[in-house]
Structure formats: C-alpha cells, structure tokens
Design brief:
The protein has helices at residues 6-20, 114-131, and strands spanning 33-37, 48-50, 53-54, 56-60, 63-69, 77-83, 86-92, 99-102, 152-154, 159-162, 165-166, 173-176, 182-184, 189-197, 201-207, 212-222, 229-230, 235-239, 249-256, 259-261. It is mainly β and 268 residues long.
C-alpha cells in the first residue's frame, strides 16, 4: 500500500471547502455585480442595504462581504452600500451594450390590445413581487450551473428593437436549444411563481436565497409548482417557444437585490 501524505489530504480538503464557498467575481458595471468588503467582525450576518434594498451577505475566511447587484440603469461613478447607518463606497464603470434588431412575424406583441395590455400589467405585478423575495434564512450559492445545454444566442444587456421599434434592454441570457430540452435548476432554491405570461410564455421563478432569483421563460413544459424545494441540477421544465419568441430557446434572467444582472457572472 502506498504511503498517503496526510498533510496533502488536509490541504486538498481545505482547497475544496474554499472553492465551494468562493465569492463571485466583482464586475462593477451596469448589469454587473460588486463584492464589497464590509470590514466588520459581526458574528451574525450584518444588515446591509443598497438603494434601500436588502443586500446578500456572505462570510468568507472569517470576513463578511456584501454581494450587490447593479441594474442596467445604474449610473457610472460613486455608489455606496449602507451598514449600521454608515456608507461604504464603491465605483461603477460605464459599459455600452450593442444593439439587437428582431423581426416578429406579427405585431401582436408590439401593438397590444386593451385585453392583452391588462393581462400584461397583472402579470408584471406578479413578477415584480417575485423579484422582491428576500429569504434571510437561506445562504445563496453563487456558483451556478448552466441551466440548459446549447449555444448562447442573445447575450445580456442588448439594446433591443422589435420590428424597428426600441424596447427595454435584454435583461437576461438566451440559450438556444430544441423544444423539449431539459432545463436544470442552477442552484438550490424554492419555486415562488409559475404561470403562462403574455410576453414570457410559460415561466418559472426560483428563489435561491437573500434576493437571488432566477426566472426561466418560454418553456414548453413546466415540471414544478409553487412551493417546491429544488436541488441544484434538478429538472424544472423543458425548453419551448411560448410567448414573444422567434424560435425555441430558454430566456434566463437572474436578479440580485431586485436588479437584473448578467447570468454569465455566476456560471462556474
């Protein structure tokens, strides 16, 4: 039997534990995230806010950090989080996203009827409530799995034009895949909303803890229901082409402190 170096085993174990709980990488741009050193020795999780919204906190190597999501509307320059009434500053760098022009076969999803507009407004309220979930009791896993296999067809942040008319920027990541392709949950979480929406088709919202929310759109099939607890990698539905689409794909949005961020920042 070969001699086993116990010290090496200890080092490997330490490396694994550090990697598993590793912090996401800061990318302080609109649509990015920033990791803020809170410089506190608090035994419990410190209460941190950004723009009066709660911020996720992670303890790494005995130190507390705030993980702050930055919306696409975030202005470049000085920003700060608040901890115990005091500000902790960080800087945001400007980023210019490219344009994307999409041609839809009909104008149903451009010129909404009165009934469709009423439906959309009701669905928007449900979505806004889901993005505001903040479960203090769940520590989020910031090392996500890619939810579906396939090429990235539309990156995050694109300035979008439908049939030549400007619309909101692309607040998610599109992954092209055939109808019926299984979608796996990127990190442990709880299903907080499902439904069939006018623009987003069949949708699933998963709360990963502390304001980290995933939204999956245009599904052909939903395999979970509100209240379900999902493991990392568990199948939650199948790719489809429901809602406002030009073909089958998964639109995946990630929200952090109610700010939509680039999902690529959390992929392992």
């Amino acid at each position: 039997m070969k001699h086993i170096n116990k010290a090496a085993i200890v080092c490997i174990g330490l490396l694994i534990s550090l990697t598993a709980g590793a912090l996401p990488k800061s990318n302080p741009v609109p649509g990015g995230l920033v990791v803020v050193d809170l410089n506190t020795e608090s035994h419990g999780a410190p209460a941190v806010t950004y723009l009066n919204r709660k911020v996720a906190t992670v303890k790494e190597n005995g130190k507390w950090y705030g993980i702050v999501g930055l919306s696409l509307k975030t202005k470049a320059g000085h920003q700060e989080v608040r901890l115990n009434g005091k500000g902790i500053s960080f800087n945001v760098t400007a980023k210019d996203y490219p344009e994307q022009h999409i041609k839809l076969k009909t104008r149903k999803h451009i010129d909404l009827s009165a009934a469709d507009l009423k439906r959309h407004r009701g669905e928007k309220k449900k979505a806004q409530a889901a993005f505001k979930f903040f479960d203090d009791n769940v520590a989020p896993d910031f090392a996500f799995l890619k939810p579906v296999e396939g090429p990235y067809s539309s990156p995050f942040g694109l300035k979008r034009f439908f049939n030549g008319e400007p619309r909101n920027p692309h607040s998610g990541l599109d992954i092209a895949a055939p109808t019926g392709t299984k979608i796996q949950n990127p990190a442990n979480g709880k299903v907080v909303l499902t439904g069939n929406f006018f623009f987003n088709g069949n949708v699933v919202y998963v709360d990963h803890g502390q304001g980290l929310i995933s939204m999956f759109c245009h599904l052909n099939e939903i395999n979970v229901k509100k209240g379900d607890l999902l493991d990392k990698g568990q199948v939650l539905g199948k790719v489809g082409a429901t809602g406002r689409v030009t073909g089958p794909h998964l639109h995946w949005s990630v929200s952090l402190n109610n700010s939509r961020i680039d999902p690529m920042l959390l992929l392992e």
